[in-house]
From TrEMBL:
Residue spans of biased composition, Basic residues class: 1-22
Region (Disordered): 1-45
Protein name: Uncharacterized protein
Length: 631
């Protein structure tokens, strides 16, 4: 097989391992009774491999063939079918793990022989409906389906159309990295030749392959990741409704992030969340048409409804214009920001159609709140209100990370203390008053020093959507992590070895992490391999340190939940924090959540998060009960 035809090189894992890892977002149920308390609230299980057209014995439809098929189908019919299907899957994935039942019901509705072939695979070895395939199909529906109802030759979509189109898009997606992945049973000789070519790579070729995969896999991971409304609400309450940290003093951003939202947008954040709560209830019940009168009657203010219509919805023409612009930017495989920013199709001044439950949850309660506030403050020039807000949110993010670390330490008998940046600076400042370069947090556990730096670094739109090239990815990794966070962590390790401060025992060992937002860099296999290739600065600590690992805020909260549930003698959460990167059974690193899946451990939600979610729900309900009346 020529290099031109073979697809992009892989990172040393099998096709099944890569697919599974890229979609890993939770822990499989089936934990042993001795490890899993009854009724322990947990995250969702890890999805399986994606079904492609060849599994059904069908030839995948090309883009041109999909356009032709969709040209015969009513746009409203297609959008309703896709919204209903994906929203059912979103709710199932983030509540009771019943998405397997939903997918089997879809195949039953198809009723064809090829569907019967697929049914035994669902939930055992494969999944039917990857979210990013549905996202691209929604895009193609907007681009190709007739808008006019009742036109000659235009019909409603059928479930068989939906599944065949989804499988065709999935086939297209998996073949980008390797054409062999588009076949259910590729020729063993071709697979062997492919592996042989990978094994013949030079060091430079291997590094280039890893970094290309990190870029591709990260966009894929973010496109497929489910959003659990309870977790999103908990983190949002902790981040948005508490007062700013003491070092935030700019009056332009108010007393807390929620007040900053109101100053930037001219509407209280809770009023917007009331509308979001009502809409999420409507959509989760299986209804997708949302009317102004329904929202106001249920407790939303007129101003909040108008805000939704103006900032979160597009008309069909507006969508067409934005989607054309997306095509001009590059491949649409992972482009989704138009939908996460505008998750509603606007029919008229009083009615919208909800496109997907998860996009709605994120828009009202998740990461979209940051961007809605940041851009509404105006141009981000030096000294601007937008810049002041961004800096303040960085401080708030660090505080949230520090609070979680404090709770983790409280569940450990081995962690003797949490040391904060200010303490380290004071301890190690020179006689000339020069402040040393240190990380944000140090967890001391005897010889073990868990070094953590928190950075509120969001991936750029081009990186997150797979539009950037490897050079842009390299620049972001070097600028945002290697030249800053890695060096701060390394400087801290040097100072610890020199002074043995804060009760650190002799011959310390170092376990470095970088905490990032939930829409930031994940610790998937290709990213961890890439960070290993970038860890040259840590060579001086060889034998006493490993390469840094990124931890998203939800991963840090997962450690809190694990410590709360399982950190009892002889188990201790410090052991998992210190050694989870060496626990995987093979030489290739895996993500934290995939490791828990392999170990048969759940992903417990901390009680603190359940309390925060309950507090935010109570605030929303109180505001809602006012029926839109002014304060």
């Amino acid at each position: 097989m020529s290099k031109k035809k073979r697809g992009k090189p892989r990172t040393g894992k099998t096709t099944k391992q890569r697919r599974r890892e890229r979609r890993s977002n939770g822990a499989r149920p089936g934990t042993s009774p001795s490890m899993a308390p009854k009724r322990l609230p947990t995250g969702q299980p890890a999805p399986l491999f994606a079904i492609i057209s060849d599994h059904a014995g069908l030839t995948a439809l090309s883009h041109a063939e999909r356009v032709q098929r969709l040209g015969q189908i009513s746009q409203r019919s297609a959008l309703h079918a896709l919204a209903a299907m994906q929203s059912r899957l979103d709710v199932a994935t983030t509540t009771d793990w019943s998405e397997v039942s939903v997918e089997r019901e879809l195949l039953t509705e198809v009723g064809a022989e090829w569907a019967n072939r697929l049914s035994p695979m669902i939930g055992v070895t494969h999944r039917l409906v990857p979210p990013r395939s549905v996202t691209q199909l929604i895009r193609e529906v907007f681009e190709s389906c007739p808008v006019t109802e009742g036109s000659s030759g235009v019909r409603d979509i059928e479930t068989s159309d939906v599944i065949e189109l989804v499988m065709s898009i999935t086939t297209e997606h998996v073949s980008v990295q390797n054409a062999l992945d588009s076949m259910a049973n590729p020729d063993p000789a071709d697979v062997g030749a492919y592996i042989a070519e990978i094994e013949a790579y030079t060091s430079d070729e291997t590094i280039a392959a890893i970094r290309q995969h990190a870029l591709d896999d990260m966009a894929n991971f973010l496109s497929n990741e489910p959003v659990k409304i309870e977790l999103i609400k908990a983190l949002t309450y902790d981040l948005w409704f508490r007062p700013w940290p003491a070092r935030v003093s700019d009056a332009r951003v108010g007393a807390n992030p929620a007040e900053a939202f109101e100053l930037a947008n001219g509407i209280p954040l809770l009023d917007v969340m009331v509308a979001g709560q009502i809409i999420s209830e409507i959509v989760s019940s299986g209804r997708f048409v949302v009317r102004r009168s329904d929202l106001v009657r249920a407790g939303a203010t007129e101003c909040a409804v108008e805000f939704v219509l103006k900032n979160m919805a597009y008309s069909a023409n507006d969508y067409a214009r934005r989607l054309r612009r997306d095509r001009e930017q590059g491949p649409v495989t992972n482009q989704r920001y138009v939908f996460t920013e505008r998750p509603f199709l606007r029919d008229d001044d009083d009615t919208v159609f909800a496109l997907r439950y998860q996009w709605i949850v994120d828009r009202f309660f998740g990461s979209q709140l940051y961007w809605q506030t940041f851009f509404s403050f105006g141009p981000a020039k030096p000294g601007s209100a937008a810049e002041a807000f961004s800096l303040a949110m960085n401080y708030a993010f660090e505080r949230v990370a520090g609070d979680i670390l404090g709770r983790i330490a409280s569940y450990s008998s081995k962690i003797s203390r949490v040391v904060y940046e200010s303490e380290m600076r004071e301890e190690w400042s020179s006689t000339k008053g020069e402040a040393p370069s240190v990380c944000d947090f140090l967890l001391v556990a005897g010889r073990a020093c868990i070094l953590i730096d928190a950075t509120n670094h969001h991936l750029s739109a081009r990186l997150a959507q797979g539009l950037a090239d490897v050079s842009a990815y390299d620049k972001d990794m070097d600028t945002s992590f290697v030249e800053s966070k890695f060096n701060q962590i390394l400087s801290t390790a040097r100072l610890i070895r020199e002074h043995l401060s804060f009760g650190v025992e002799a011959n310390p060992v170092f376990i470095p992490y970088v905490v990032v937002p939930n829409n930031g860099l994940a610790n998937i296999t290709s990213v961890r391999l890439d960070w290993i290739t970038r860890s040259a600065p840590f060579e001086e600590l060889r034998g006493s340190a490993r390469a840094p690992v990124p931890l998203r805020l939800s991963d840090l909260a997962l450690f809190e939940g694990l410590g709360e549930a399982f950190s009892t003698t002889p188990r201790d959460i410090a052991d998992l924090l210190g050694s989870w990167t060496t626990l995987q059974p093979g030489p290739v690193p895996v993500s934290l959540r995939e490791l828990l899946d392999q170990l048969g451990l759940p992903a417990p939600i901390p009680r603190s998060m359940l309390r925060d979610q309950a507090v935010l729900d109570a605030l929303i309900q109180e505001r809602r009960s006012e029926g839109g009346l002014p304060d």
